[in-house]
Amino acid sequence: MSIIGALNLINEFLFSFPMNAVWLKNLDLSYREDVPIPIPGIDEALIKVHLAGICSTDLELLRGYYPYEGILGHEFVGEVIDLQSDDPTSRSWIGKRVVGEINITCGKCKTCLRGNSTHCENRSVLGIINHDGVFAEYVILPLRNLHEVPASVKDEAAVFTEPLAAALEIQDQIHIQPTDFVLIVGAGQLGQLIAQTLALTGCELQVVTRYPHQGKILTDRAIPFIKENEIPQNKVDIVVEATGSPEGFTLALQAVRPRGTIVLKSTYKGDVQLNLSSIVVNEITIIGSRCGPFFPALNLLDTHKVDPIALIQARYPLKECLKAFEQAVTPGTLKVLLYPG
């Protein structure tokens, strides 16, 4: 039998078995053992998931932030075990540890052609919009979405690549100088990553915390923090809102100075009441901020300029996903990880 024939037999054997996964349907979360292993299409990779992280967007999907049915999760690190491609050089991906960008784009629409592919008009989004996510034993992604993880970066750090990239997006959107007074409202898992990245700019930085363990992590990184009742009023040049709750925007608006900037990182279900008059009168700039660059994120992890491992509070096997989510929704919880098993 030829090598190709043997590989085809192995693939047929692999894909004949179901996999375990965390499934969301009608806002109800369940653990399933009967989900078919996904079959990669042309220029797609099949990835065995090593670790996956629960983030605030996953929790908001449970609350109905966006109508979604399927496998949740978009933060992961894994290993490429198979792929389909007409390019023989693509086989070099097999066996590599990878992380993956979450937007699956068409590359043909006007938005993609303008270079804004994360806002592709036809996009699907890993574990969020029309594409099964990573809370499973296996996931598929286009090869163009993959980034190899440097050998020095442990899985426990690599799993933070996507949220770290989101933190770095702020610096792609606005230029932060050492003379800027910057306040981060929210010291959860994303707020902590933002704090570590902004600390590298040399700006005057403060982070608003609610829980002692949040302050402890910041202290270990020599990053100043304050309590909610210590937020300066109308004094801050740049405020980053990363609380995950509508109340965070109110605090940000109180803190920002006239002609200052508010960067919004939170996504949550429902509407927010705004005092638009104060925004207009004080000429506040408001910037929405979402996905970010993976290469700089991996470089920061590789050079240990950012260390996210202290943010991990718990790890659960997929079969204990309900316990994992129960802990993840507990106020003050940082990162909860899932692993196959």
Keywords for this structure?
alpha/beta, six-stranded parallel beta sheet, Rossmann fold, 11 helices, Quinone Oxidoreductase, Chain A, domain 1, seven-stranded mixed beta sheet, 341 residues, 2 domains
Helical element count? 11
The share of residues in extended strands comes to 25-35%
Shape field: globular
| Rg result | 21 Å
Mean pLDDT: 93
The assigned structural class equals alpha/beta
- Indicate how many domains the architecture comprises: 2
The biggest sheet amounts to: 7 strands, mixed
Low-confidence spans: 1-7
Secondary-structure map:
Layout lengths: L2 H13 L2 E8 L2 E9 L7 E11 L1 H7 L7 E2 L3 E10 L12 E4 L2 E2 L5 H4 L10 E2 L12 E5 L3 E3 L6 H4 L2 H13 L7 E5 L3 H11 L4 E6 L2 H9 L4 E3 L8 E6 L5 H9 E9 L11 H6 L3 E4 L5 H9 L9 E6 L3 H8 L6 E5 L2
Parallel strand pairs: 11-12, 11-14, 12-13, 14-15, 15-16, 17-18
Antiparallel strand pairs: 1-2, 1-4, 3-5, 3-9, 3-18, 5-6, 6-10, 7-8
Tell me what you see in this structure:
The chain has 11 helices and 18 strands. Helix 5 crosses helix 10. It starts with a helix and ends with a strand. It has 2 domains: 190 residues, Quinone Oxidoreductase, Chain A, domain 1; 123 residues, Rossmann fold (3-Layer(aba) Sandwich). The chain is an alpha/beta fold and 341 residues long. Helix content is 27%, strand content 29%.
Task: Summarize the entry for a quick read.
The protein is of the alpha/beta class.
